[in-house]
C-alpha cells in the first residue's frame, strides 16, 4: 500500500469490468476516491463501487461515452463535485473487434480509434487543464497493450490505437514534466478478463496462448492494478514518459504473436 494515495481522487475509464475494475478496486484499497466509468454495464459499475467502498475507499459510478467530449466532461465534473478535485486519470476504456484488413469497414475502424485513442486524448486534455489550473502534480496512466509494439493479425485498428497511445503518452509527458505532472503507460499482455475468458478457449487455443508467454501464465487484472498503484504513487515520482510492460515476457518473443 502507498500511504500518499489516501484521499486522492482518480477517474478510471471503462471500470465496470476487467482491468479497469481491477484498478478501481485496488485504488479502493489505497483509500482513494474513484469515479467509476461505464457505458453499457450499470450492474458491473455498481459492483465496482461497492467493492471500492468495502476496500476502504469512496466511489461513484458515472455513465459516460468516453469517445465524446460531453462524456469525458461528465467524468471530470463528477470527480470535482463528489470529491473536490482530480489527481489521477487512468485511460483504460478500449475495445477491438477483429477483422481482416481488407474487410474492415471505415465505421469499425473509426469506432475503435474514437474509444481507444481519441477518448484517451480528450480525457488527458481535460485532466491536464484541471491539474494545471489548480497546481496539482497529478498522474495520467494510459492502459496500452503489448500490441503497441507487436502487430496483431486482423486487428490493424487496435494496434494503431495502441501505438498512438504510446506516442501520446510520451508527448504529454514531455510537455508537462516541468509542472510535476507525470504521464506513463502500462502495456498488458494476455490478461484474464470477461472479454478474454481463458476457460472458454479450446484446449488447442490455450496451448497456443501459453506458447507466447515465457512465464507460462495468463495475467490477472490485479497484477495490472498493482502496476497502476505504483505509477500513481510517490514511489514512482521520477518516472514519466515510459511504458511498463506487464506481460509475462510476451514482448521478448514478438514473432510468436503474429
From TrEMBL:
GO terms for biological process: bile acid metabolic process. Pfam families: adh_short_C2. Keywords: Oxidoreductase. Its EC number is 1.1.1.47. One of its GO terms (molecular function) is glucose 1-dehydrogenase [NAD(P)+] activity. InterPro entries: NAD(P)-bd_dom_sf (IPR036291), Sc_DH/Rdtase_CS (IPR020904), SDR (IPR050259), SDR_fam (IPR002347). It comes from the Bacteria. Belongs to the short-chain dehydrogenases/reductases (SDR) family. PANTHER family: 3-OXOACYL-(ACYL-CARRIER-PROTEIN) REDUCTASE, 3-OXOACYL-[ACYL-CARRIER-PROTEIN] REDUCTASE FABG. This is Glucose 1-dehydrogenase.
Amino acid at each position: 500500500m502507498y500511504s500518499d494515495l489516501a484521499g486522492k481522487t482518480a477517474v478510471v475509464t471503462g471500470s465496470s469490468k476487467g482491468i479497469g475494475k481491477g484498478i478501481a478496486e485496488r485504488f479502493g484499497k489505497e483509500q482513494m476516491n474513484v469515479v467509476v466509468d461505464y457505458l453499457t454495464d450499470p450492474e458491473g459499475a455498481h459492483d465496482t463501487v461497492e467493492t471500492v467502498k468495502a476496500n476502504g475507499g469512496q466511489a461513484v459510478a458515472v455513465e459516460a461515452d468516453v469517445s465524446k467530449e460531453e462524456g469525458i466532461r461528465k467524468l471530470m465534473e463528477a470527480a470535482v463535485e463528489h470529491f473536490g478535485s482530480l489527481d489521477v486519470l487512468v485511460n483504460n476504456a478500449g475495445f477491438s473487434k477483429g477483422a481482416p484488413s481488407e474487410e474492415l469497414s471505415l465505421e469499425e475502424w473509426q469506432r475503435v480509434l474514437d474509444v481507444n485513442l481519441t477518448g484517451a486524448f480528450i480525457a488527458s486534455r481535460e485532466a491536464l487543464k484541471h491539474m494545471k489550473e489548480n497546481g496539482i502534480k497529478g498522474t495520467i496512466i494510459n492502459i496500452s497493450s503489448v500490441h503497441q509494439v507487436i502487430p496483431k493479425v486482423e486487428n490493424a485498428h487496435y494496434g494503431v490505437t495502441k501505438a498512438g497511445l504510446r506516442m501520446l503518452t510520451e508527448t504529454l509527458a514531455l510537455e508537462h514534466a516541468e509542472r510535476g505532472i507525470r504521464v506513463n503507460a502500462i502495456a498488458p499482455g494476455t490478461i484474464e478478463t470477461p472479454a478474454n475468458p481463458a476457460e472458454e478457449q479450446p484446449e488447442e487455443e490455450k496451448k497456443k496462448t501459453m506458447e507466447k508467454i515465457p512465464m507460462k501464465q495468463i495475467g490477472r487484472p490485479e497484477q495490472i492494478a498493482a502496476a497502476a498503484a505504483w505509477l500513481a504513487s510517490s514511489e514512482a515520482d521520477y518516472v514519466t514518459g515510459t511504458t511498463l510492460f506487464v506481460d509475462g515476457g510476451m514482448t521478448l518473443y514478438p514473432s510468436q504473436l503474429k
